[in-house]
């Protein structure tokens, strides 16, 4: 593809992502984070497929790096979501 077309898609996706995230109310951030974690899981499956395809050494190395980064993203996302959900739980022994 033409580099100008790819750069246009990149800039457009950055702009749209920024605008969409700014429009989300604070009460919807936890469900949005859970949805993002599901998408990151799909990314992890794609990275595993890329790493195991054995096309070239560079593709295998980049696929392995993608697996590592996607795994960090998934684990970190679930940790943040769990911490956010813990804020909504009632404390043990709290007075009414």
UniProtKB/TrEMBL annotation:
<keyword id="KW-0521">NADP</keyword>
<keyword id="KW-0520">NAD</keyword>
<keyword id="KW-1003">Cell membrane</keyword>
<dbReference type="GO" id="GO:0050661">
    <property type="term" value="F:NADP binding"/>
</dbReference>
<keyword id="KW-1278">Translocase</keyword>
<keyword id="KW-1133">Transmembrane helix</keyword>
<feature type="domain" description="NAD(P) transhydrogenase alpha subunit C-terminal">
    <location>
        <begin position="8"/>
        <end position="90"/>
    </location>
</feature>
<keyword id="KW-0472">Membrane</keyword>
<dbReference type="InterPro" id="IPR024605">
    <property type="entry name" value="NADP_transhyd_a_C"/>
</dbReference>
<dbReference type="GO" id="GO:0008750">
    <property type="term" value="F:proton-translocating NAD(P)+ transhydrogenase activity"/>
</dbReference>
<dbReference type="GO" id="GO:0005886">
    <property type="term" value="C:plasma membrane"/>
</dbReference>
<protein>
    <recommendedName>
        <fullName>proton-translocating NAD(P)(+) transhydrogenase</fullName>
        <ecNumber>7.1.1.1</ecNumber>
    </recommendedName>
</protein>
<keyword id="KW-0812">Transmembrane</keyword>
<comment type="function">
    <text>The transhydrogenation between NADH and NADP is coupled to respiration and ATP hydrolysis and functions as a proton pump across the membrane.</text>
</comment>
<dbReference type="GO" id="GO:0006740">
    <property type="term" value="P:NADPH regeneration"/>
</dbReference>
<feature type="transmembrane region" description="Helical">
    <location>
        <begin position="57"/>
        <end position="81"/>
    </location>
</feature>
<dbReference type="Pfam" id="PF12769">
    <property type="entry name" value="PNTB_4TM"/>
</dbReference>
<keyword id="KW-0997">Cell inner membrane</keyword>
């Amino acid at each position: 593809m033409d580099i100008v077309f790819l750069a246009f898609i990149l800039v457009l996706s950055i702009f749209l992502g920024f605008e969409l995230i700014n429009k989300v109310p604070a009460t919807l951030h936890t469900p949005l984070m859970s949805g993002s974690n599901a998408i990151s899981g799909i990314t992890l499956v794609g990275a595993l497929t890329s790493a195991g395809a054995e096309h070239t050494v560079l593709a295998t190395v980049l696929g392995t790096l993608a697996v590592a980064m996607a795994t960090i993203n998934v684990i970190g996302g679930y940790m943040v979501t769990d911490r956010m959900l813990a804020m909504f739980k009632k404390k043990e022994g709290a007075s009414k």
